[in-house]
Amino acid sequence: MARTMHAPLGDDRSTLHIPDRHTALGLTEADLLGIYRTILLARTLDQRIWSLNRMGKAPFVVSCQGHEGAQVGSAWAIRAGHDVVLPYYRDTGVVLTLGMSAEDVLLGVFGRGDDPCSGGRQMPNHWSSAARGIVTGSSPIATQLPHATGLAYAARRRGDDQVAVAYFGEGATSKGDFHEALNFAGIHSLPCVFVCENNGYAISVPLTKESAVDDVADRAHAYGFGGVIVDGNDPLDVYAATHQAIRRAGAGDGPTLIECKTYRFRAHTSDDDDRTYRSPDEVEAWRKKDPLRQIRQYLIEQRLLTEEREDEITAEVTAEVEEAAGRAEAAAFPDPATAASRVFARPLRPLRGAPDGLGDQPVAVDAEKPLDDAGPATERNVIDTVRHVQQQLLADDPRVVVLGEDVGPRGGVFRATAGLAEEFGSARVLDTPLAESSIVGIGIGLALAGLRPICEIQFADFIHSAYDQIASEAARIHYRSDGDYAVPLVIRAPWGGGVHGALYHSQSIEATYGHVPGLKVVAPSTPADVAGLLREALADPDPVLFLEHKKTYRLVKGPVPDDPTWRVPMGVAAVARPGGDATVVTYGLHRHLAVEAADRLAAEGVGDVEVIDLRTIAPLDTDTVLDSVRRTGRCLVVHEDNVSFGVGAEVAAVVAEEAFYDLDAPVRRLATADVPAFPFAPPLEDALTVDADRIAAELRHLLAL
Ligand SMILES: Cc1ncc(C[n+]2csc(CCOP(=O)(O)OP(=O)(O)O)c2C)c(N)n1
Ligand SMILES: [Mg+2]
Predict the structure, then answer these.
(1) Ligand 1: which atom is nearest the Cα of residue 269?
(2) Please, which residues have CB less than 5 A from ligand 2, an ion?
(3) % of the chain beyond a pLDDT of 90
(4) Which of 123, 141, 262 to mutate to test the pocket of ligand 1 (most atoms within 8 A of CB)?
(5) What band does 17 get if pLDDT is binned at 50, 70 and 90?
(6) Is 549 labeled as catalytic in the residue annotation?
(7) Closest ligand to the CA of 203
(8) Would you say the CB of residue 199 lies under 6 angstroms from ligand 1?
(9) Is 141 in the pocket of ligand 1 (CB under 6 A)?
């Protein structure tokens, strides 16, 4: 980009010949004064927050000082309310430009109930405003970047010219999510603008230790699009680049990475001591390039800012910040009664562990129509059911998008999407790069844009690189935005062993993910439950991890109602086999094995065992479990997951807490030993497998106690 050297101001400006840079950019006098005022507002506000910090009133400061030129200059090019923006924590200047007030920012600083970003749930500077197109942000660096690509993909599908603008520091460019997002944006030439505020440090780590190349902008070329470098302390330079990038993106010409070379004047946050890693001289040298000074000087040179006008603006801004600070400090804290609310957009069960009176009331759930009353049915196996229901969902709802590795023409490695790309096109049945974090992250962006994504993770074993996107993002976006956003996302994952898949194609992941608040986890085991729960999961406004046991795919067959509206409620267990002498609580493949074992024991006259299929892991249907155990007095929990810290531990704890005096014997668990999933060689795998024989043996023991 062109750089302009500013002549030093003398007393007599009339002799200076100062080139006008703004008219060619389409910026008016009002724009220039607006940019100047907003930079001054950001600076004044930031200084005020530091002073509140010194007074012990603001526990945490994330300073934008030094970055305001990059922030306000770029955001001035955003079509506020039209484009969708994903700022990062340092972006006070961005959100002020987009219409947030100083008071909005300060309500967050004080953690007040009216904090528009999170109602006092997040730390300051975790921006969010659905009304302003500002997408809720988190603390983990770079996680917002795949969201931007999902939002941009959705804009492309709608056919409008909305652009997703994502902000981040240069430290974020070391993260996988940065690379996965740019890769996806490049492949699909998405309407995205990536704005990097390169201040040369990730807390204390200098650029030389973050990257072997000097310029972040160079990264873009590897992903097939352009990267530009701008003087981040010159708001007009930043504006020009961002304006052009947004225009290009909106016109269908693809993404741009803009690297704003800038500097932060203060420590990383109020918890940092920047004297430990940089010199006062370095800071001083950059202060000479202060963006506030640069825009002020330009305005003076253009004769747009008289001393009088400057004094007026300064007084106005100071008063605005002072009044905002007074009002925000006086505002009420959030009501403690809301601390456990909005974990789910659609709560299915009372929130476990919530102190009395806290947590949302569960919604009323339609009773399940028994299979016998569900009209005509077709016999299907599990995998065919998954495919059939996805086909129906795609046909019925244009918002549905399926994405994942090999889901396109290949039809999925298990054939769960066979024929769907041909029928619905590759834009709706989308082959993604091999990058699980971004598969979920893109899905989140699609969901935030109002689509209904179904992400396929090829094997549950490979989901863990998406853990951050699932646990830190999808599952807590509703809570952290105080209900402003919801993430209706389904993540399908084939799980489980018994298929000689060894350590990395056999894992059970339900306990790990069942532990994540805000995430619903289901693990159906019959074709009918798969059909009913998949439809229910897609209709739900919360993220759902939908686990399909691989061994059931072709082994388990059963009737599936033809009625495409037939559903199974989440959060409700099923009695798979009634009985009165003992209860087996299980799910997945082991529902079938437990029923087989129970039938055997009944035939032998040993006892009549009830089998409960949880179907939903989280939230757990404790009522059905307790009701059964209270009748039978005996409880065995069976699962394929490792025994420690698993679903069995949870069920056993609930039974011990709630039904101890109804028990005739201790609660028992039968699960896989704490090995890292199943070994490959058949004798090794068999030695660890929990089969019907072992369940029957364990039940005999339990019934004899
Ligand atoms: C994944 C992750 N790791 C570590 C942190 C702690 N942390 C917060 S900000 C930061 C540095 C980020 O540097 P950069 O992206 O350059 O942004 P800057 O703060 O310099 O504007 C770190 C390490 C975090 N928030 N997230
Ligand atoms: Mg940095």
Answers:
(1) 19
(2) 169-171, 199, 201
(3) 96
(4) 141
(5) low
(6) no
(7) 1
(8) yes
(9) yes
| DSSP result, 419-445 | THHHHH-TTTEEE--S-HHHHHHHHHH
In the chain, the amino acid numbered 303 is: R
Residues 576/612, Cβ–Cβ less than 8 Å:
yes
Q: Is 278 exposed, middle or buried (0-12, 13-18, 19+ CB in 10 A)?
A: middle
| DSSP class per residue in 440-458 | HHHHHHHHHTT-EEEEEPS
Q: What is the pLDDT of residues 583-606, one digit of tens each?
A: 999 999 999 999 999 999 999 999
pTM of the model: 0.97
Amino acid at 161: D
- For the chain, domain boundaries: 19-326, 376-561, 574-704
Q: Is 90 in the pocket of ligand 1 (CB under 6 A)?
A: yes
Centroid of ligand 2 to alpha carbon of 199 (angstroms): 5
Q: How far apart are CA 572 and CA 570, in angstroms?
A: 5
Superfamily of structural domain 376-561: Thiamin diphosphate (ThDP)-binding fold, Pyr/PP domains (3.40.50.970)
Closest CA to 349 of 335, 359, 336, 340: 359
Distance, CA 244 to ligand 2 centroid (Å)? 24
Atom of ligand 1 nearest to the CA of 173: 15
What separation in Å is there between the alpha carbon of 411 and the centre of ligand 1?
Answer: 39
Q: Out of 268, 505, 590, 592, which one is annotated catalytic?
A: 505
- Could you say which DSSP state residue 371 is in? G
User: So what's the architecture of 19-326 in CATH?
Assistant: 3-Layer(aba) Sandwich (3.40)
Please state which CATH class domain 574-704 belongs to: alpha beta
List the end-to-end C-alpha distance of the chain, in Å, as a whole number.
81
Instruction: Note the ligand closest to the C-alpha atom of 88.
Output: 1
Q: Note whether 376-561 and 574-704 share their fold.
A: yes
Going from the Cα of 509 to the center of ligand 1, the distance in angstroms, rounded, reads 29
At residue 328, does pLDDT exceed 80? yes
Which pair of structure tokens corresponds to residue 642? 């490792």
How far is the CA of 655 from the CAs of 409, 457, 508, 556, 625, in angstroms?
A: 48, 33, 23, 30, 8
Cα(70) to centroid(ligand 1), Å: 18
Q: What CA–CA distance (Å, rounded) separates 28 from 452?
A: 42
Rounded to 5 degrees, what are φ and ψ at 20? -85, 115
